[in-house]
Protein 1
Amino acid sequence: MDITGLIPLLFVIGMVIATVWLGVWATKISKTSSDFFVAARSVSVGWNASAISGEYLSAASFMGVAGLVMKFGYDPLWYPACYAAGYLFLLLFIAGPLRRFGAYTIPDFAEGRFDSPGFRKVAVTFVLFIGFFYTMPQMKGAGLTMQQIMGWPYWVGIAVVGSVITFNVAIGGMKGITFVQAFQYWAKMFAISAPLFVLVSVYGSYHGRLGEIAGDPAGKPVQQEPAKVKVLSLPAGTHVLQLPDGGKASISEKDLRAATAGAETTSTGTRGLMIRTAEGGSAPPVASADVPPGGSLQVLNEKGPDGAAPPALSVNFATPTAVSFSGAVPGAPANKAWIQPFGPFTSKNGYPLLYTYSLIIALVCGTAGLPHILVRFYTNPDGRAAKRTTFWVMVLIGVFYMFTPIWGTLGRMIIPHLYATGKTDAVVIDLPRALDNKLLGAILSGITSAGAFAAFMSTFSGLLVSMSGALAHDIYGKMLRPNSSPEQRMGAFKVAAIMFGAIAMFLGYLVEKFDIAKMVGWAFAIGAASYFPLLLMGSWWRGLTKFGAGAGMLLGGLLSVGAIVYSMLIEKGNAPFVVNSKIALTLMEQPAIWAVPLSLITMFVVSKLTTTHIPRDVNLKMLRLHAPEELGLSKNYIEH
Amino acid sequence: MGGSYGLALMADHNLLDKHLTEEQYERLSHSVMLRQSKLSLRIAAIFLAMLLGLPLINRYMPGLANTTVAGFTLSWLFLAVLFYPITWLLSWFFIKESNRIEADTAAWQAEIDQARKFNRQSDNAGGASGSDTGDRA
């Protein structure tokens, strides 16, 4: 690896050091356990809005949205739009009441609202469900980024990055996280926007490129730059190719001979290079994954001028060699399907309109059901500050999301080879490296890599805090050892953080093939069918009982989890049974459209059947949720 | 926007006792929630019409959705760019109105507190100032 290749690594290391250092530094301020859990409820609006945004803008926002837009075009624009819009819903119905109710976590809300410690257990389970679904894509982002910039195997990046973050959470808690995450928001904002000013000046403007795509409906992206592939040292008969995306493939001498011979004589119609995976040895060819079948392929000596005649079969493979291919890239939708609504993303199983609506419901309602976001509203000094914070969060993340589709659009035009490898999630990392100025490209790629690190580090940290907090505060502190001292709970928190960090790393290792933003969308869907109905009904309907809330949350939430896991197994090709109905497949891949109403209706019906269990002081609870602090009515009531 | 119905509802009741009854609390919490929820629902309706209407336009008026304006298709321009400032405007408007409701309620409460103090001193719990609170609302 040459010097420019190390630049992104330096940026990433700088980001990690800054993060850990800030966490350690902030820990010195965080002493009491109240500080540890909710930052003593004293974080100012500016800090809190930056921190919430920093926590919210995960790998899905930083890498995943750009990647999904590059892959599918218009349809994934719903992701960022609804990630942001969810906050409006949160603001309208949940943020103020929740803050006023005054509790550390959603399980606290669940218990306080229904005077039921038992209900807490039900509520805690979903912190873990949603948390794991959300951490998987973060870990994919970590593995993929390290793969792209360092050529590490996928799992190594996950192990290294996951361990660093887990360590940081175990020592820092949430006070540290607030400062770290506020810093990370601004790092991410800079990283997603600043490189674009250079890239747009070189590759053409956002609207210009979109105009080109719209003006040529049948067009498809064409490989323009030769993909550089280095041939490393060779065991006898086999050549290991280092692919630009960091993956490895091997090729037999015979196959390479055939390919170079074909490339010399014809420019189209050749079979292309037969590539075998390194791990699979003589496994079936995977040419379509890396090299377009039907496209021509040339093997060039890197020392020679680009586009020169390919060398003869006697090429010396012991030295670095570049391989280039050209032609339409496989796996890329045509321009029309890309830029117009209801493209391949939503139309996969037919019913694109249904798919779109279900996705919207999942994302908008799901934002309100994210445990690691809601806990942040307790760090506002009062309900009014909680509302102002929400407004600024919407501005901060909205500006961020305006930039992400530009990456996807330029990526489609400039580095379409990502379609062939299926690694469009890496577009923000790889696009700057396509620049002719390799040094500049490495620096810009270093900036986006550091931004990606900020993204999955901040979100992963926040989730670990929520999950470990739930375990230490709810399961250990309230259920297992009610008499435990604060020190013991802190110890439980640290153990939980390490345990959950390890599980998340393992799960992340399993999901390499899934799109990051799509996985996060699923976490939203689960939140939408479980916590959102609880919070909405709990805040606004006095007739809700613990049985109604519990039944609705369990039914909607667990059915969503089941449907989503099944969809993932189908996509991986090892589902235990096969469903052929296209409408059923659509509804299982995007369950929110049935799961959210199901949960709400179940809550209503079961509550109506169990009206004797409505908390006796429900009116006081409603006042505490809705009356401004200045009223002090609940206080009077308690004294009386 | 808003209006005084919620506070008028509260003022109907004699809340100047030293201790509020269960029923009065119910009325009070109802009325506080009523104003806030009407505001929330009104803004949610605007927002949902926009959010849920766009897929319908994309589906049934593709000509409009795919009209190109300065490179962008209209639908892309709306969802990827204009959408965000619109949510900011709605949110800003909501917070302004919501804080106004809370300020009204708080001012009304201050008056009650004062009256209550007076009542305690004169040991004369009475509802004579009910109309005052109504004016205030």
Protein 2
Amino acid sequence: MCLSIPMRVKGIKGSTAVVEKDGVSTDADISLIDDIETGDYVLVHAGFAIEKWEEDDIQEYNRIIQGGDN
Amino acid sequence: MSTQTRDFPELIRETQELAQSVSGDVKLMEVCGTHTMSAFKSGLRSLLPANISLLSGPGCPVCVTPDSYVDLAVGISRLDGVIVVTYGDMMKVPGNSSSLEREKAGGADIRVVYSPVESLRISEANRDKRVVFLGVGFETTAPLSGMIIKKAVERSIDNLFLLSAHKLIPPAMKLLLSSSDHDIQGFMCPGHVSVITGPEVYEPLTSEFNVPCVITGFEAWDMASGINMLLYQIREGRHEVENQYERSVRPGGNPKARGVMEDVFEVCDSEWRGIGIVPDSGLSLRERFRRFDAYSEFSSIEVEDSVKHSGCICGEVLKGLKRPFECGLFAEECTPDNPYGPCMVSSEGSCAAYYRFGRDGRGHDGE
């Protein structure tokens, strides 16, 4: 139930962002974080962005899901 | 972010070396149900040295939601002019006499949503009905419930009600450590709870009980790293809060989310299914938001006290004192299709995980 997914922000309208991962898009409420822009990565939990990821966070994640820094 | 760059096999070799350098058996508790499932699904459990074992803790929110709460939700769903809105995880959870799934099949208007935001839309589209959102979960989901209450105020929604079963993780961890018979030598702390709270929330536990805590992410790589960080602390006699999940968990957590929680909720005692009342572990709506409180709105509905099935040892399992396969009901009378106890109820419950994957992660074994 505590699953959260890192997703990329494709667009923002008010307190709602369109976020995307692996070609799948959905809405996420961004009321709980500040300074979000299109192109940013956010951690999405139950339709809310709960944290912003920086570029090196994404790079670490990509390394991990590929099995580490081989 | 973390600068760790080792690959997964290298991490496991490190785990094996560390396991040889610590004395005796080491029991580590993964507090979060999502950790429990990740450890099984990834096969990580089967790769751990024989003297390192993982205990599943009380961090499965559906598992610890008391059956009296389910009974109240069922009772509300039977009323005319009511829509119950819930996360899907709650649908199969049995109360004393029914479940939301059964009530929906019988015609109750119960709607499964991915996000609590949808309860706002449903409320606005059904102004002639009372809409009740079942607020279940820990610090990760509580700010989301708090935010929909604040948005309901902004949008003048007066037909939305929150049935809060929200709970706080650190008081439950403290309860486990306060027990004289606990056998926990380290905690893998829940990553996404910690996104909200920040690492600091565990510091009273490490200082009072001398037990190391490592906030851990949910990939197998994260969990292997978290286990190694705990083993280093144990080997070196340290008991600190460390953060393996730096890519998500910042110092101080998410201050905006914490602010919403503190603004909307106040701390109260709370019943944990299988454990009992845990002091200061729940969240109820503050007085100024009381008009959204489903407990007040539906106070005329009477529910029975929680009933524990004879022979069920879920309380001991949730405290890490026993394993699911030590229960006489496990995989016989108690199965995912016919759950007796809370740990079999949710797909993230430890009994459900052991049933699905087996004690060694290679398939069901109820022996």
